[in-house]
Amino acid sequence: MDVALIQRIAPFILEAALKTMQLAAASLAIGLAAAVALVAARMSRQAIWRGLSAAYVSVIRGTPLLVQLFLVFFGGPQLGLNLTPFQAGAITMGLNIGAYMSVGLHGAIIAVEHGQYEAARSLGFGRLDTMRLFILPQAAPLMLRTLGVNTVILTKGTALASTIGVVELTYSAQRFVTSTYKPFEVFAAAGIAYLIIILAIMLGIRGLESLFGTAERGRV
Amino acid sequence: MLDFSVLPPYADLLATGALWTVLITVLAGALSVVLGVLLALVTLYGPKLISLPLRGIAFLFMGTPLLLQLYLLYYGLAQLGVLLPAFWTGVMGLGVHYAVYNADIFRSAIQSVDEGQMEAARSLGFGRTAALRHFIIPQATLTALPQVGNNSIILLKDTAVLSVLGVAELVLNAQRGISATYRPFEFYFAVAVLYYLLNLAMEWALGRAARKAEAIR
User: Number of folded domains in chain A?
Assistant: First the structure.
């Protein structure tokens, strides 16, 4: 175990960890937008939107993220889609995690008692207002947990972006391995950086949960 | 333009890759279940001296990417003088990774078995180990089945990551085809379709098993 090496590469690992967090944040933003759109489509009155939403979620959840990344980054140019590794990574991972999140968000919405919906509608509120004023505020605390779990999964998944050349934590670690021939120390150092990021996300979600009073429902 | 007629000459290569993917899923899945049950038993009934550090180690597995764990296992072990073939490193890495997740499921499943079951078995003269083996674990397995099945489906998709270590499964075999034809979209699309079909088949089989388990309960 070469501790001096870990100390030497620590500043670079930290920098790479920031890149990982940027990638995760960009993917999360895209994923949230995708998830909201998917839930809206799933709850649409038109069967075609419901069908499209279900098909999208099924295909995304039925294929590996790695293959999706390769298809977009290496296959995209054949369709005229030329993206940088970071763009391809953020968009693909966002569209991927959005499908998983939509399932959780939809679950949180239908977990709100149906009588609430009927009561609001019978008082004259429209479908959108009912959703906005009555259902979503009650579903929000339940959504935190699924969002937290998926953010953790997403952040760990960003390591796969190294395979399409995004310079993040895992990619940087590989570069250090080729220059130092010390894979154990370097990958261990990168692992510690991931642990700190994941721990921070979990604590953040726990904090939000206790704010909403849902902490006792379970841990992230 | 896209031209899917490049694929048929490589159908055998892709089919072989899919078979290896299935084999890896079965081996790693079996390891994740067996090791998962053992981990659950140790955390529940083992001495604190072992069960507490195990929880910390479990967090190490849950808090870092699978890809990094595979790199650490493959290249890190080589540095320490342990040379394992990529295939077995991959099976081990995947199996242990999902064993940690399965252990949590088995643990709560075992805890959810009514305490009276253990008391009844003990009062009939069964020892604690025998009671666990014949009464508690079979019941817990039925409870845990749907969630463990879910994890196995996630595992199937994660076998794709082994291509990075050089294991000749579905993705790596497709890459061989790509380097001969320069047609990444067609090949990765075909690969995605194959994974989707494998996924559907697995969901169907696990769904059937879960319904059977529900009927036994």
Answer: 1
CA distance B47 to A188: 28
What is the C-alpha separation between A149 and A178, in angstroms, rounded?
33
Mean pLDDT of A185-204: 94
Which of A64, A183, A199 is nearest residue B71 as measured by Cβ atoms?
Answer: A183
Q: Which of B119, B100, B112, B114 is nearest to B144 (CA)?
A: B112
Query: What CATH number is attached to the domain comprising A9?
Result: 1.10.3720.10
Three-class secondary structure assignment of B14-49: HHHHHHHHHHHHHHHHHHHHHHHHHHHHHHHHCCHH
Residues B119-152 have pLDDT tens digits of 899 999 998 889 988 888 888 988 899 899 999 9
Quote the number of domains for chain B. 1
In angstroms, what CA-CA distances link B142 with A68, B117, B148, B213?
34, 15, 10, 6
**Among A64, A182, A194, whose Cβ lies nearest the Cβ of B64?**
A194
Asked if residues A96 and A29 have their Cβ atoms less than 8 Å apart, the reply is no
ipTM of model: 0.92
Q: How far apart are CA A127 and CA A134, in angstroms?
A: 10
CATH number reported for the structural domain that contains residue B92 in this entry: 1.10.3720.10
CB pair distance less than 8 Å for B72 and A162: no
Within 10 angstroms of residue A35's Cβ, the number of other Cβ atoms is 27
> Which residues of chain A neighbour B24 with C-beta distances below 8 Å?
none
User: Chain B closest CA to A114's CA: distance in Å?
Assistant: 27
CA-atom Rg of chain B in angstroms: 21
Residue from the list B64, B164, B196 with its beta carbon closest to the beta carbon of A195: B64
Query: CA B65, B69, B72: angle at the middle one, nearest 5?
Result: 140
The answer to whether A209 and A215 have CB atoms below 8 angstroms apart is yes
Domain that holds residue A80: 3-217
pLDDT tens track for A126-166: 888 898 888 888 888 889 889 999 999 999 999 999 999 99
pLDDT at A214: 60
